[in-house]
Design the sequence.
């Protein structure tokens, strides 16, 4: 069974794209210029792999099936707490974000679903949004609730927390919001709720650790009770920010404890940027999955903290090592199929380009992990041959699988070179005309 986001293989097979945002002739024209070189690179790689008894066609099929969800909040230019420098033609509402997602998927063919953030993306008419999204060949992945920010006309503030707040009125409000997100997600065909809270403290003594965690558990249990039977609840841990001294769900240990207390369909979500520097994330992946609690990922990269940089841009070897674990788990647990999502902030690049490129980087890590000679690795581990064990991983990692990714895209009617094709399409320039800048838009802060 292929490794991919839950039910995504089915989604890819059953959804027929009724409309495309870009003219298919644009993609075909650029592909035509690149296909001869691809054929020859692919053939050379096929021969090289055949010498290792690896069938390139099987790898290409697995690459084609690979899917990762797009974050709706990653389509506009991001920013830091200092400033945001918007680009041209940014999406102004959820429909325009979906159109941009469709472009990402049309070119890259690895991202057929979108993860929504509520209330940022709350539609007036969910049915209209669903129809629009399906017409573009996309579906909805996990829903995200937001109790880390106050909204206009909200009765109670989340300044001092939400699900772990010391006062019940705020907790009740946060529970109700999460249940509303589930209700909306049901209408949109989602199958999961991701809960990340900013709850925590900025000073020693500010918050009673145990009591705050107990309140969080009580509240998440109430949310879990409202979850449909075929849904998962994903708990996302994060070491710091916005709380800088302690956070209620600060690490995978707290996340595991909470998920275990809450129920079977409650699992942990690993955001790659949410750990202290140098933490061995691939080992967390192994630990959580061994006990059935690894539910999903937010892929991104980081240098210092929750930087939300493009996946694979800083430490592609770590990404590969994460997938090395995932492939290993998949080989041993056939039903294992976590949610894969990107969670990035694109501050200096065109978000569409970053998302296409990042999805391909994650897909690349997956394909390389498939190349690991697992029999040999097990043997080296058994005999404590540290040199050859690490060399086995490196030899898979060092192989250039780009022709496989390109061929997978070409066969799915995507672009051999998606970034170049995107630039030639003039999509962003057209958006700049069609989406005049909203004068009221904020120039600072996140998203
Ligand atoms: C958080 C966390 C959540 C994301 C928000 C915007 O740091 O990563 O997943 O929804 O940022
Ligand atoms: Mn995240
Ligand atoms: Mn984050």
Sequence:
């Amino acid at each position: 069974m292929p490794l991919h986001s839950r039910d995504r293989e089915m989604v890819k097979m059953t959804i027929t794209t009724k409309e495309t945002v870009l003219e298919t002739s644009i993609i075909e024209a650029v592909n035509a210029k690149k296909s001869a070189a691809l054929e020859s690179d692919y053939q050379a790689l096929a021969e090289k792999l055949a010498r290792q008894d690896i069938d390139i066609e099987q790898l290409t099929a697995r690459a084609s099936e690979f899917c990762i969800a797009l974050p709706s909040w990653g389509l506009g230019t991001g920013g830091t707490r200092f400033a945001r420098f918007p680009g041209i033609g940014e999406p102004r509402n959820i429909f325009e974000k979906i159109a941009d997602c469709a472009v990402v998927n049309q070119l890259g063919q690895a991202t057929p679903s979108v993860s929504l953030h509520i209330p940022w993306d709350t539609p007036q008419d969910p049915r209209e949004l669903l129809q629009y999204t399906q017409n573009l060949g996309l579906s909805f992945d996990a829903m995200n609730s937001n109790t880390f920010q106050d909204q206009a006309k909200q009765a109670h503030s989340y300044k001092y927390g939400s699900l772990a707040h010391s006062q019940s009125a705020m907790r009740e409000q946060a529970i109700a919001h999460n249940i509303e997100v589930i209700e909306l997600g049901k209408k949109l065909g989602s199958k999961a709720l991701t809960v990340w809270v900013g709850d925590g403290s900025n000073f020693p003594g500010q918050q009673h650790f145990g009591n705050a965690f107990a309140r969080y558990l009580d509240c998440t249990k109430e949310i879990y009770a409202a979850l449909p039977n075929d849904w998962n609840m994903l708990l996302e841990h994060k070491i710091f920010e916005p709380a800088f001294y302690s956070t209620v769900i600060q690490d995978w240990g707290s996340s595991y404890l909470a998920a275990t207390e809450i129920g079977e369909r409650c699992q942990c979500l690993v955001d790659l940027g949410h750990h202290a520097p140098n933490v061995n994330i691939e080992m967390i992946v192994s630990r959580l999955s061994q006990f059935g609690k690894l539910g999903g990922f937010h892929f991104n990269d980081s240098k210092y903290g929750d930087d939300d940089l493009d996946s694979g841009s800083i430490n592609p070897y770590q990404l590969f090592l994460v997938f090395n674990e995932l492939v290993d788990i998949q080989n041993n647990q056939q039903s294992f199929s976590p949610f894969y999502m990107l969670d990035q902030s694109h501050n200096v690049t065109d978000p569409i380009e970053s998302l296409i490129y990042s999805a391909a980087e994650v897909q690349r890590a997956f394909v390389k992990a498939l190349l690991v000679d697992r029999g040999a690795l097990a043997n080296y581990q058994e005999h404590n041959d540290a040199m050859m064990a690490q060399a086995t991983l490196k030899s898979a990692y060092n192989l250039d699988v780009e022709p496989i990714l390109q061929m997978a895209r070409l066969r799915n009617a995507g672009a051999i070179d998606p970034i170049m094709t995107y630039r030639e399409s003039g999509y962003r320039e057209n958006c700049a005309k069609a989406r005049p800048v909203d004068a009221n838009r904020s120039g600072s802060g996140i998203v």
In short: The radius of gyration is 22 Å. The chain has a mean pLDDT of 95. DSSP finds 16 helices and ten strands in the chain. The pocket of manganese (II) ion (ligand 3) is lined by residues 271, 273-274, 306, 308, 343 (CB under 6 Å).
